[in-house]
Write a structure and sequence with these properties.
This protein is of the alpha/beta class and 448 residues long. It contains 18 helices and 12 strands.
């Protein structure tokens, strides 16, 4: 089978309605050409090259279309920013509004049945779209605001928190205890790893902890795990579930849902729908956060430490960001880690796999206090009392003052405009598969 011939892509832009028609027609024709080729694993070299050329031409056209019309698209999806749509829904609403701009839910669901290496990478188009939204100041700020609102399912659990002071969400648990609300991340079979099955529960638990009227601060801790040499003890977490990633079970939008949602909520608090969460007035409901590092904080769990107000660690615990060995970008660590350890050590951690022992000079630049594991519960109680003993009236003010100096809202937005685009290509790169097979023995691991 010879390579199909690509028709000329639109090279200019005009009125929105006309461009929707012209570009959608081109994207449809591109999809037809791609469908004529064998499935990705069965392509020869010529067919593989043709497929990549078809996809790249379509992606270049998406970039041109969005450069001219991203604000118009976003305003139609949000009724001129009068309604909030979370990023994981926005990408599918956009598929209905402008056919071909991003994949449909059915397309993504079909690809989710494939190994990561066998996917076409349709979700890269989601990254192109979200990147353009975030790069636009008006649309990007509004989307960040949407992701700081309580999760749509949080409200149904508020009464349970009020009745018993505890809500078990499966992959996360939240409960009150004295002056603190405790969030426990739970995936004990997989060293508390994060994946598509854990994210909603973790975010709802964070919402509930912040909304708990009886607590003054929040504590993030890992559950007791069931496997490996850490069996029977707590670990904070091992980051993204690499087996799920290799098997194609981690959707691309997961990364953005996580960092625009749960991680940013810990850092900036919960927003209100009637007030933008800007740098000066704040307009968020927030509390100080303490992280407890037991065993290890790897990857995404190390990233959590960079938005905490206090980090308590066990003497034998370590932290690492093995994203280079995975072939992805470690969330906002590139933005935040240099503030703690300096640029050179941050580069060593992100690009050369430098590991931090919590009880080391470099580790103590991230960890505020390091104690024996046997003293962890008592130390946790002491930290809560120390941070609340004189009240936390000024805590939100001081957190905002630190944020405006270190990470203003638009800096965050611009960082994730780049991240959305680059992570999309990383997520579907051949290097990711090679790294997982070489460094994780991914071929030999079962899904569950």
């Amino acid at each position: 089978m010879t390579a199909p011939v690509q028709e000329a892509a639109p090279q200019d832009t005009g009125d929105f309605a006309g461009d929707c028609t012209r570009y959608a027609r081109f994207w449809e024709a591109s999809a037809v050409l791609l469908a004529r080729l064998p499935a990705k694993p069965a392509r020869n070299a010529e067919q593989a090259l043709a497929a990549e050329q078809i996809k790249q031409a379509a992606r270049d056209a998406r970039g041109r279309f969005l450069s001219a019309h991203v604000e118009a698209v976003y305003d139609r999806l949000t009724r001129n920013r009068s309604r909030f749509v979370r990023v994981e829904q926005l990408v599918y609403d956009a598929a209905s509004l402008v056919p071909g701009l991003v994949p449909t839910r059915a397309q993504v669901a079909a690809e989710s049945e494939l190994l990561q290496r066998d996917k076409e990478g349709h979700e890269i188009d989601q990254g192109i779209f979200v990147s353009a939204v975030l790069a636009n100041p008006r649309a990007g700020r509004h989307l960040c605001h949407a992701m700081l609102l309580p999760h749509p399912k949080t409200a149904e659990h508020l009464s349970g928190m009020g009745r018993s002071g505890r809500v078990d969400l499966g992959a996360a648990e939240v409960f009150g205890g004295g002056k603190a609300s405790y969030v426990i991340q739970k995936n004990p079979r997989h060293l508390n790893a994060e994946d598509a099955s854990t994210l909603d529960a973790a975010e709802i638990a964070v919402d509930l902890a912040i909304l708990d009227p009886l607590s003054q601060l929040c504590v993030l801790r890992g559950d007791i795990v069931e496997s490996g040499k850490y069996r029977g003890r707590r670990v904070l977490g091992s980051g993204i579930n690499l087996t799920h990633l290799y098997r194609g079970k981690v959707p691309f939008i997961w990364y953005l849902q996580r960092d625009l949602g749960i991680v940013n909520k810990i850092y900036r608090g919960l927003a209100r729908p009637d007030a933008a969460p800007d740098d000066v007035t704040g307009n968020t409901r927030e509390k100080p956060w303490v992280a407890v590092v037991e065993g290890f904080a790897i990857g995404g769990h190390c990233q959590y430490l960079l938005v905490m107000d206090y980090v308590l660690a066990a003497q034998d615990a370590f932290m690492s960001l093995p994203a280079r060995k995975e072939g992805i970008i470690p969330g906002a660590a590139n933005l935040r880690l240099p503030r703690f350890v300096g640029d050179r050590i941050a580069r060593q951690a992100i690009m050369a796999e430098r590991r931090f022992e919590c009880d080391s000079a470099e580790g103590r630049l991230i960890c505020d206090e390091v104690v024996p594991q046997s003293d962890m519960d008592g130390a946790m109680d002491r930290v809560v009392e120390k941070l609340t003993g004189s009240g936390v009236v000024s805590a939100s003010a001081n957190r905002r003052a630190l944020r405006i100096a270190q990470e203003p809202f638009d800096l965050f937005r611009n960082y994730f405009a780049l991240y959305a685009l680059e992570q999309a290509y990383c997520h579907f790169s051949p290097a990711l598969i090679e790294n997982l097979e070489r460094n994780w023995n991914a071929k030999g691991r079962k899904l569950d």
